[in-house]
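Service request form, structural biology core

Requester: graduate student, group of Dr. S.
Request type: structure prediction, single chain
Budget code: on file
Notes: please return the result as structure tokens.

Sequence provided:
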Amino acid sequence: MSVSESPEFEAVKAENKVMKAPALEVIKSDWRSILKIIGLRMAETGGYYITTSFMLSYVALAHVSTTKHVLWGTLIGSALGLVSHLIYGALSDRVGRRPVFIFGALFTIVFGIPMFMLINTGAIIMVIVAVALSLLVSHDPIFAVEASWFSEQFPANVRSSGISLGYNGASVVAGLLPIIATAIYGVFGWIGPALMFSALGVISTCCALTMRETAPVAIARRRGTSDQTLMHSTR
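Core staff response, request fulfilled:
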């Protein structure tokens, strides 16, 4: 109750530009950004559900480990995330939202098969490392920049609705992935869910490349380059 509105939204209220039906307005005017956000969240949310929820079923179905080892990895990865989120968020303020996001998405692509190979060893430490590493390097850099990057994609008067539609739309899709991964495992074995995990990274990477960079430092850097270019051209 003590958190104030953002300065941008306060300006919208002061100018009496608050939308009566912001959800409908953002769907009508910016539905592409909503779909992109759904795609952007696939590596983060979908990858998280596969790493945690599906993996609990997988280690039992494949008889490679026990669920408590997956839970230990989840707890350790989540505890480290208390620090990593701050680091990734601060880094995105320095280098931009997109580079940090793409780092996590690319790791999702390359880590799908290695993660399952580590877990398939059945060694306790390998299972814990695989799960914790997935959370720490795949999930966390993406999740750390979502709040700022996604909100900066929309005008202030429809921002909350735009984020909510994209964010929760992705949750609906990603929530089905553990079930789908289980079915794929039944047909193709562990390689199926591993490739599925990597495919989520491909989707998010492609979407990230289409999103505009919004970090103030990156915008300032771009403007500085443009100003220098303009000065040289006029000379």
